[in-house]
Amino acid sequence: RYRGLPTLAYTHFQPAQPTTVGKRATLWIQDLLLDIEEIEFRLGSLRFRGVRGTTGSQASFLDLFDGDSAKVDALDDAVARRMSFEHRYPVSGQTYPRKVDAALLATLAGTAASTSKMGHDLRLLSHLGEVEEPFESTQIGSSAMPYKRNPMRAERVCALSRHVITLYQDGAFTAATQWLERSLDDSANRRVSIPDAFLTLDGILVLVENVSSGLVVNEAVVRRSLDAQLPFMATETILMRATRGGGDRQELHERIRRHAHAATRKAREEGGDPDLIARIAGDDAFGLSAPELADLLRGERFIGRAPEQVERFLDGFAQPLVDRLGPQARARLDAPDIRV
Which of 12, 84, 137, 143 is catalytic? Predict the structure, then answer.
């Protein structure tokens, strides 16, 4: 719907070359789809520890089968298959490698990084008034300031995502501090960190689905924000058009510089929008009328291939991945109520 709606882009949270509302959303979606690919990789690479005994040597099983290694292997294979694993770790100590837990938590932390990025972006856009998350009719934005519409869901996404990201360190430190064949200081930690990461991320994704399904784009505000900056972004285009009309590029460049600084100073001192275009239209050196300048200021002139990129992303990357995952990926589960 918004793939072609021009909007002001930001780098360093300073105005930059325009993009589109839809193109910006694809950045969030792409992160989450990359997370799905990472989850698929982790699931596909999981192995079974196998029947290895107390230190991984299989000594007790070798004794059980009177030294017959083939029977030990057969038991190992049978137990792995019964547990629905095709592959086992070639060697182990008393436990499977705790690096597996670290990698698992890293994958969940990566997903949390994606949701946090999205949450932060929505909070910034909410401040600008361009985007709003769902707001219930009885929702209170602030106990002290009743007029406020705080982005509480996005803030909660960021808060919980931060927690999941920090849980990765539990897995990494547990793997790093295992002694020799095994020490028991892993057990209590992983019983807390692993389920905590899964449950917290589940709650985060419920919030993300809720926000995404009810997101409001204030198109008028989006256009107003862009229109306020377009005159400055269009200066190169104006310069080239005036130069083709016979103007001296160096002289015109200097005139634009002076007009831009004067317009900015006036806007900051007196309020209101910068009058850069009016100054250029009134400068005969440019030879451009107000209608000609207005045509150069259409936002669609500055968004490049953004709409096409959205189409190609959806058709070439997002939809094939969803189709490959099957009906479960397209099903909308009944989400629990969210308290705000």
Answer: 12
